[in-house]
Design a protein that fits this description.
9 strands, alpha/beta, Spore Coat Polysaccharide Biosynthesis Protein SpsA, Chain A, 11 helices, globular, nine-stranded mixed beta sheet
Length: about 290
């Protein structure tokens, strides 16, 4: 039997809550039936993370860098990672105990396959609220561009070969750098997924899903970069549909935050670009 491949789990950390950080790191170290190294990247925290954690484990490596944001911190983790596979975890989320081993089995021996599972969306106390599941398989770049691949990066496992082909996280992004990374990865790999839970995402006031305007700007930048790489697709129906999806997502977000004027503006922008797909959502109240 061939030796089990090492999985590197990269955890960027900036001004963490210890009662959230420690369970996150413990969930990474506690992955069952798989060999892991956990790379906690201290993004210039006021109190060094090494002094906060209090976890003694030879598989845990704390890397301290000057503060530069989550994308730079993840890149520092990738530079130090030794694993044949890579997984990402945020400092306020938790991995399901058996998920990395299952994702590794989904990859099989094919190092051009990204594996994924479901994400449980939770409140601040990590109480489940809903589960995000995808059933897409194979080459799904187009579906991802159109917002149909709703999978969180913390629920994915990347072969190192795909990571290297994808390149580093783009540090020019304020938000959606993870979405941009995933989209670029899908240009090089197919996906294999399962509906079993891979991670638990903690939604709170400071989480990335809370700032609608920043999220919208990040997604539009993600599309800008994609169509810069694929100039022949500029101005096509695909771009109009992709832009419509971002406006529709923003309309939902603004509506949820009680910003009705902005919600209406984004809904109309989406409708102008892709009326066939958007109109049914408007008829259902953006659902």
């Amino acid at each position: 039997m061939s030796p089990q491949p090492l999985v590197s789990i990269v955890v960027p950390v900036w001004q963490p809550r210890l009662d959230w950080l420690r369970p996150a790191v413990e969930s990474a170290l506690g992955q069952a039936e798989v060999e892991v190294e956990v790379l906690v990247v201290d993004d210039g925290c006021a109190t060094p993370v090494r002094d906060l954690l209090g976890i003694a484990d030879a598989r845990l490596h704390v890397i301290r860098v000057a503060h530069g944001g989550v994308a730079r911190a993840r890149n520092a983790g990738l530079a130090a990672a030794r694993g044949r596979y890579v997984r990402f975890l945020d400092a306020d989320d938790v991995l399901e105990r058996g998920s990395t081993a299952r994702l590794l089995r989904l990859c099989g021996e094919d190092e051009q396959v990204v594996a994924y599972g479901a994400t449980v969306m939770c409140d601040e106390e990590l109480r489940p609220r809903r589960t995000v599941v995808s059933t897409l398989q194979g080459r799904i770049l187009r579906e991802a561009l159109l917002g149909r691949f709703e999978v969180w990066i913390i629920s994915m496992l990347f072969p190192r070969a795909v990571v290297d082909a994808t390149g580093p996280f783009d540090t020019s992004f304020d938000r959606a750098a993870d979405g941009d990374f995933v989209l670029r990865a899908l240009e090089h790999a197919e996906v294999r997924g399962e509906e079993r839970v891979a991670s638990f995402y903690r939604r709170h006031r400071g989480s990335a899903t809370g700032d609608v305007a920043a999220g919208e700007a990040g997604l539009q930048l993600m599309l800008d970069r994609y169509f810069e790489r694929h100039e022949t697709e500029r101005g096509t129906r695909l771009e109009r549909q992709a832009r419509a999806w971002v406006y529709l997502a923003a309309a939902r977000g603004y509506r949820a935050h009680g910003q009705r004027r902005r919600a209406l503006d984004r809904a109309l922008r989406a409708l102008r670009r892709d009326p066939g797909r958007v109109l049914p959502h408007l008829a259902r109240g953006l659902r």
